[in-house]
Amino acid sequence: MTEAALLRPVLYPRHAELGAKFAAFGGWEMPLEYAGGGVLKEHTAVREAVGVFDVSHLGKATVRGPGAADFVNACLTGDLGRIGPGRAQYTLCCDDTGGVVDDLIVYLNAADDVFLVPNAANTAEVVRRLAAAAPDGIQVENRHADFAVLAVQGPRSAEVLAALALPTDHAYMSFAVADDVIVCRTGYTGEHGYELVAPVARATALWDSIMAAGAEHGIRACGLAARDTLRTEMGYPLHGQDLSPEITPVQARAGWAVGWSKPAFWGRDALLAEKAAGPRRTLWGLESLDRGIPRPHMTVLSGDTPVGEITSGTFSPTRRIGIALALLDTAAGLTEGSEVAVDVRGRRSRMKVVKPPFVRPGVK
Q1: 2 alpha carbon, distance to own chain's centre
Q2: Which residues pair with 327 in a beta bridge?
């Protein structure tokens, strides 16, 4: 996609004022990091105080009509029968082969009203698939342009929102509505935090009020680079790298997001068969034992034998080491603690196989 074709969030002027470095992501021109901060300071602000991300590039869609929740439940992997109105659920949209079209959050308003937050690049496809399958009386609508999403994340996040008279004491993976703002106890950093879904017309004023209320708590505007290091430290997958149409939830250790006992969801037969047989490859964590930062697509070696590929890799600001997620061949027989290697800029770098997360902050 050319730069001219990239979409800009409504808060683009605020990001520019803060000296943001922009990058293309999911068809949008989004802040990567900010002047005077950078990924290390932004990452640390979220782990130790509070940061705010503009994640308005995330998709938004509604599914409404009699039986809307039951319809969504018969399509996506998560079991909506396990939650009630006012709750949210991480789930997957799979194809018939079990590949992951998208991972997304479902917000259950009522039996006839469901709100979806897919990934930016996949929103149109998720909406298309649901609309094509929807029975008469159920409407599926892409609401991407109607809402902004701001993620306020970190141990001081509740204090910031409380100063704005927004609700903060609801449970993890639940949401409350205040003055047309949906305050969700969700996030992708591993810290206590909230995602605020607000009408686009209110986005700038909401951003300004959050930044003002957070000033005494050391709030920082945070970009996608810090969001990536934070989610990688937690072992959270990124669609297109750790999940994809070629990477199933069984391979990616995301079986916990599948309602295995449900009678129907897209990809069910293929996933049940793969689960029963065992996946040919599995997503593991890797921790560097030497200097060097692992990056996606690097080949993982056991001895001199290729045994997999890194899907996500970065420097962990919290651990001060290189960390990675990697799909490793089941036949290689690797277990937690096994030593492998990757080629980092022409030098063989040793890594240890581990189970994510790489850090354990207080998400709940």
Answers
A1: 25
A2: 283, 309
3-class SS of residue 187? coil
90 backbone φψ class: left, alpha, beta (φ>0; ψ -120 to 50): beta
CA distance linking residue 296 with residue 304, whole number of Å: 19
Q: Which residues of the chain have pLDDT under 70?
A: 1-4, 361-364
- d(C-alpha 311, C-alpha 239), whole Å: 10
CB-based burial label for 105 (10 Å; 0-12, 13-18, 19+): buried
Please report, in angstroms and rounded to a whole number, the separation of the first and last CA atoms in the chain.
38
220, 43 in Cβ contact below 8 A? Answer: no
For the whole prediction, is pTM greater than 0.90? yes
The sign of the torsion formed by the CA atoms of 72, 77, 81, 87 equals: negative
Greatest pairwise CA separation for the chain in angstroms: 60
Place of tokens 């992997």: 77
3-state class (DSSP) for residue 332: helix
Residues in Cβ contact with 147 at an 8 Å cutoff, skipping those fewer than 6 apart: 56, 60, 197, 198, 199, 200
Residue 362 confidence (pLDDT): 57
pLDDT at 1: 42
Residue (of 150, 139, 95) closest to 117 by Cα position: 150
For residue 234, the SS3 value is: helix
Say if residues 122 and 59 touch (Cβ distance below 8 Å): yes
Q: How far apart are CA 312 and CA 247, in angstroms?
A: 13
Segment holding 302, helix H or strand E:
strand 299-302
Spatial distance between the Cα atoms of 32 and 164, rounded to a whole number of angstroms: 27
pLDDT at position 347, please? 87
3-state class (DSSP) for residue 197: strand
- Hunting for tokens 């006012």 — which residue is that? 86
Cβ count near 313 (within 10 Å)? 24
Could you list the beta-strand ranges (E) of the chain. Answer: 21-25, 28-33, 51-54, 61-64, 87-94, 100-110, 113-117, 139-142, 147-153, 175-178, 181-184, 193-199, 220-222, 281-288, 299-302, 305-316, 321-329, 339-344, 347-354
- Rounded CA-CA distance 117/184 in Å is 12
- Token pair for residue 159? 């204090």
Rounded distance, CA 162 to CA 135, Å?
42
